[in-house]
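tool_log.txt
---
The assistant was asked to compare two proteins side by side. It first ran the structure predictor on the initial sequence, then on the second. Raw inputs and outputs are pasted verbatim so the downstream comparison step can read them without reformatting.
(1)
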Amino acid sequence: MSEYILRTLGLTKKFGAVTVVNSLNLNIRKGDIYGFIGPNGAGKTTVMKVVLGLLKASAGEVELFGKTGNDEALRRVGSLIESPGLYTESTALENMKRFAILCGGTDDDIYQLLGAVGLAEVGNKRVKTFSLGMKQRLGIAIALLGRPELMVLDEPVNGLDPMGMKAMRDLIQYINKEMGVTFFISSHLLGELEKISTVYGIINKGMLVEEITADELERRCTKSLKIRCSEPKAAADIICSKFGETQFQIHDDMLDIVFDVNRSATVNKLLVDSGIWVSELGINIMSYEDYFLTRMGSMDVGRGVGQYA
């Protein structure tokens, strides 16, 4: 089993009578790019602030590098929450040197990191002249001072144009692969997270809905059969009994079931032989968006044999 970099154990945060984070159990392994996905107001930023010690948990614990209640472990974490706090009248190089006094880092580290985030040639320019994307990259370079093993990024592509988003994705993947840094990234933009995440944590209304690897998500978001028939629930039971449990949804007289579409004729014959009248049989592809909306309860999903809970 891979080493856990970050875990939360029953993490709960309340503001007065309002529960913003409810008994959350995150599991982030070394080397992950963990995409923390959920709608605005789901509790993503609050979780990150509690992890970083910026807010105190109402209940539960945060485990960093296998230990709880260890402030020293935070020295191994870099972060960028909401927006970078930069000295805009100073240059990028001066900003790096100021933060190096606090976080550690040599001159060699500073120049290497500015190069890594693509700011080597503008190191002597004042930050107030930078675009939003450049400021975000500088913030990440600062967060990398002290050589953290875990980076916590809150909505790092928020407000960026398409080119800026791609540059940020490329930077995160480079740091992950070449520098061995684990990432915990929040976003409400599924289209951006799906391009880089190796694991997803789905949060809604302060509760963790599911953790799923990118490989498993790809497997689940596969082609399925759409079968309009006389008894969709019975049809699902028959198929699962014959070929093994699988994911399915039922809407009125339509059964949408994950199955090898090349065996559609076999399924049709099985149902007809079992007394199920089939009036329509087609192929459907579940998108990542459909899957996440389903898991967050935004779609009417039938419950039954083989449905993921």
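(2)
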Amino acid sequence: MTSEAEFLKPKSDCSTNALHIDPKGCDVSMPVVETTYGGVPALTMTRGDYQAILLPEKGGNLVSFRDTAKNYRFIREPLEDMERFERSPIRFGIPILFPPNRYEDGRFTAAGQSYELPVNEESTHNHIHGFLYRAEWPVVGQGEDGRETFVEIRQDIDQSHPMYAHWPHAFSISVLYALSEDGLRQQVRIVNHSDRPMPCMLGFHTALNVPFAEGSDKDDYVFTATIGERWELSDRKLPTGRFQPLNEGEQRIAHGGISPFFEPMDNHYTARPVEGHNRMVLTDRRLGVKLVYDVGLRYRHWMIWNDGAGGEFFCPEPQTNMVNAPNTGLPDDVSGFVLLAPSETWEEECRFYVENA
């Protein structure tokens, strides 16, 4: 089996020359600036009042999205706790999960191919969160195109990549982050370069600050999300295949809004788009400002986790598939499990933007 440390190394040498300056010292006239963040090489994107910071060497994690004029910090940042970030990067920023969440005993079979993933959650004897959220991501593009400032990162997996031993396919996955005056856009592209069907399972452990505005309190915030039905989970945190009724608070997630900390949540839901949109809306009632996380319709399931209702952040996590999808025995159109044919491409987009309430 491959050690987790091997996944931290890039497949190819595609590094940038860091300037070793703090993001606050950036020349904001430049659309993308090479900086450091907490001592880690970073790329800082700026467009109007918006700023975003990406750590290519730390899982390709976008650890910051800010409105610098209003001092809004939407994403939970690790700057004040880099040691904890090293231990548990999924608690900060937007970690890339491929595959997302848990898989029973780290094993599944799809299209006649057996897969064995490292068991990295001892308490449940499951594999959790995939291979790429700690990997180095080579930067393959950066700059501006007139409307957006962007950075693109990409993993190219083949037999020389340590992931291949567990996911025996040649494929590429690229993530583009782009800033405009409308907010932040994320576009993912996955291409199966192998000659066999390949499982395509993706999610994001998106950590949002509550509050995100200076001067507000967590009690000023409510959220909604386009959740449908709640999957029952076993004591191993795996779906049983049955639904549970939504309690009163969960019904308010879907309709009306409720505090992100109304109760401890580590809950799994189907997505139920409304008027063609699949999204989470976090509202600061004191300021009358909404942060909208509009995820593509191909993300057919949500996890919502609030760290035991701790009152600092919560994670609305879009996933293409339900937890443990290939082992559930449910039809693919229910579980969200996707097999990419040889040479097939999967693409989807998410956006963050701000509205007045």
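---
observation on (2): The radius of gyration is 19 Å. The domain at 4-356 is CATH 2.70.98.10 (Beta-galactosidase; Chain A, domain 5).
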